[in-house]
Amino acid sequence: MSKASDTESKIKEMDDFIKSQGAAETIQRLIAEGALFVSNHSGGKDSQAMLIKLLDLVPASQLIVAHASLGEMEWPGALELAEDQAEVAGLPFIVAKANKTLFEMVKRRFQSRPEVPSWPSASTRQCTSDLKRDPIRREVRRYAKAHGFTKIVNCLGLRAQESPGRAKRQLFKIDRRGFNSVAHWYEWLPIHELSTPEVFATITQDGQKPHYAYSLGNQRLSCVFCMMASENDLRNGAKHHPALLDQYDKLEKQTGYTMHMSQIPIITLAQAS
Ligand code: SF4
Known about the structure:
Elements: H1 3-32, E1 36-40, H2 45-57, E2 63-69, H3 78-89, E3 93-97, H4 102-112, H5 126-147, E4 151-155, H6 164-167, E5 172-174, E6 184-188, H7 196-205, H8 212-215, H9 231-240, H10 242-255, H11 266-271
Parallel strand pairs: 1-2, 1-4, 2-3, 4-6
Antiparallel strand pairs: 5-6
Iron/sulfur cluster is lined by residues 120, 125, 127-128, 131-132, 222-223, 226-228.
């Protein structure tokens, strides 16, 4: 059997298993088979609560924490919060960095194709794929190879309550992008059903504190200025990071395109009362 058809038959076998036995049983099977569970950690409340839940279910020897560093784009302290939580739990901590920044991505796109919008869009989410997902995947592959893991469960703190799109996401599935003859990848959303109050309660009941941006009034956390952020979070970002706002504003003016999905200039959104 060729490697490709071998992979397809393995995918079918596991797909059938997931459908017949359900997510919980599949996860138990993968734990017993020594899979590596990757807790993706942005430094935000959902990642923090997810890691608390994962520590209840997965042996520490099969768990690592991965953070995609976005440099000056992300709230200061996000990486440190993820790193501290990993350290306290005695888990390996991996930092993944893309070979470009968001601003470089936008400038390059503007130079090569000035006729199309230069900023990532909510539908393509090039920032998530190029700056977070792919760099983390690259580092996890390296880690798994070095430590002999051939099954990888990529855990994401996405919740149904966040958006209709996220509500439709499967709790557990085969990750076809990573599944090949060398490694079998899966995707799991361990806190998909949690509400926002339940997320904060999980953190406080564990004796931890969420990132300080929440006490400054933020609803969500990752990039200080996210294309999908609420006006509240943009205003809060502007208040605490005016120099960064200035850089976004300048690049919007230079490209002639807006970064936010509303297509309203960031300076207008951030300064609205
Ligand atoms: S937080 Fe928003 S802007 Fe930043 S990478 Fe994620 S989707 Fe893109």
